[in-house]
Write a structure and sequence with these properties.
The chain has 5 helices and 7 strands, in the order H-E-H-E-E-H-E-H-E-H-E-E. It is an alpha/beta fold. Helix 1 runs parallel beside helix 2. It is globular, with a radius of gyration of 18 Å.
């Protein structure tokens, strides 16, 4: 005797994409837009991994002076600029390649006069604990709901169609570092919808 299991059609909204060879992934717009509403920055903002310019555009829309560069020309800002060659910035705000995120965070905290904010995959927080404790980690903003962060080429295709990817399966946070800070880092949640922010 066999039992027939009815087929239930479900909508699949999350996707798995092939890894980008340059570790270039684009966050949902709200990630930056909401950060610049909730986190205070004094002075100019630099995104040295600006890609298509989402962080720079969000910073400018919030009233900040912001500029961007990237190691490769990706259609926005100056291309061919290796972040490691930059020696000074007031604030750094970026979604850097995750395979060099420790090197990036250390260098950013060395050159920034005020704040550094980087998007960080939370599944790596435990392993990063040793080196994060060596830096002036000031605040962690856990992003909710989970943002979708596809490879750049995929995100730009969504953009061309007037859409944003949804259904992210990984958790991310903004890590904010403050020059000279020696206290205990604060933890907050940054919600996509302003009315749900606490």
């Amino acid at each position: 005797m066999s039992l027939a299991v009815p087929h239930v059609k479900t909508e699949v909204r999350a996707h798995s994409w092939q890894r980008d060879e340059d570790d270039w992934y684009i966050e949902n717009r709200w990630c930056s837009e909401r950060l610049f509403v909730e986190e205070r920055f004094d002075g100019e903002i630099l995104d040295p991994c600006c890609g298509s310019g989402r962080i720079v555009k969000a910073a400018r829309a919030a009233g900040f002076i912001a500029s961007g560069s990237d190691i490769k020309p990706r259609g926005y800002g100056g291309g061919g600029v290796d972040f490691r060659s930059i020696t000074r910035a007031v604030n750094v705000c970026s979604n850097p390649p995750f395979d060099v995120i420790e090197e990036f965070a250390r260098h950013a905290c060395t050159i920034a006069e005020r704040k550094v904010a980087i998007i960080f995959p939370t599944r790596r927080l435990n392993a990063a604990g040793v080196w994060l404790q060596q830096l002036p980690l000031y605040r962690t903003w856990f992003l909710t709901p989970r943002p979708s962060m596809p490879p750049g080429r995929v995100a730009l295709e969504y953009e061309r169609n007037g859409k944003e990817p949804r259904g992210g399966k990984q958790d991310f946070a903004w890590l904010v570092f403050l020059r000279g800070f020696e206290g205990r880092a604060e933890t907050r949640w940054l919600h996509r919808d302003k009315e749900k922010q606490r």
